[in-house]
């Protein structure tokens, strides 16, 4: 019999408590079904496409393969829903819009959240220059130093 689990998360800077009947329930479904987050999306379900990417305590996480039980009590969880608004977008959202970086927009959530985590990690490591096109391509393909996560766009807009 699955074990029920209650967890409090700091979702986009707001404390939210969730309860699941099965402690193996993936973070993606908790975010979408209980917390009304529409940014993270189900793509592949096996951590290969990135559509479900969120930041957990600043780290890039694939929410489709992250059981809620693996998310620490009180963890800071960031989703695209909490970054900005149409009237006041986050600079990364604005850059993607200005450059017309998406077509169908299904994968863009994951790419933006992954890019945000990656850029923050670069900054924390002391790299303050803008990444080159080659570095961005390496990040998206999972070939960047220290990264094994890739991002897939099925509609071909990239």
Which helices and strands appear, and what pairs or packs with what?
Blueprint (H helix, E strand, L loop, with lengths): L4 E7 L2 E7 L6 H8 L18 E4 L2 E4 L13 E3 L12 H8 L9 H17 L8 H9 L17
Mean pLDDT: 92
Number of domains: 1
Strand content: 15-25%
Number of strands: 5
Strand order of the largest sheet: 2-1-5-3-4
Q: For this structure, what is the CATH class?
A: Alpha Beta
- Contiguous low-pLDDT stretches (5 residues minimum) are none
CATH architecture heading: Roll
Structure overview:
The model has no long low-confidence stretch (mean pLDDT 92). This protein has helices at 27-34, 91-98, 108-124, 133-141; strands at 5-11, 14-20, 53-56, 59-62, 76-78. The protein is α+β, with helices and mostly antiparallel strands. It is built from four helices and five strands. A hairpin with a 2-residue loop joins strand 3 (53-56) and strand 4. It has one domain (5-141): Beta-grasp domain (Ubiquitin-like (UB roll), Roll), CATH 3.10.20.30. Strands 2-1-5-3-4 form a five-stranded mixed beta sheet, with helices on both faces. Residues 5-83 form the 2Fe-2S ferredoxin-type domain. Pfam families: Fer2 (PF00111), Fer2_2 (PF01799). Its EC number is 1.17.2.1. This is Nicotinate dehydrogenase subunit A.
């Amino acid at each position: 019999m699955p074990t029920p689990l209650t967890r409090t998360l700091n979702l986009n800077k707001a404390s939210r408590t969730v309860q699941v009947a099965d402690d193996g329930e993936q973070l993606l479904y908790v975010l979408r079904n209980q917390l009304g987050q529409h940014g993270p999306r189900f793509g592949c379900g096996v951590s290969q496409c990135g559509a479900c990417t969120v930041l957990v305590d600043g780290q890039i996480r694939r929410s489709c393969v992250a059981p809620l039980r693996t998310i620490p009590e009180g963890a800071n969880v960031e989703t695209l829903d909490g970054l900005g608004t149409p009237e006041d977008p986050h600079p990364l959202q604005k850059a993607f819009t200005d450059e017309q970086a998406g077509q169908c927009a299904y994968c863009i959530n994951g790419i933006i959240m992954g890019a945000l985590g990656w850029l923050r990690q670069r900054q924390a490591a002391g790299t303050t220059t803008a990444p080159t096109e080659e570095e961005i391509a390496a990040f998206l393909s999972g070939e960047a130093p220290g990264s094994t996560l890739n991002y897939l766009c099925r509609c071909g807009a990239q």
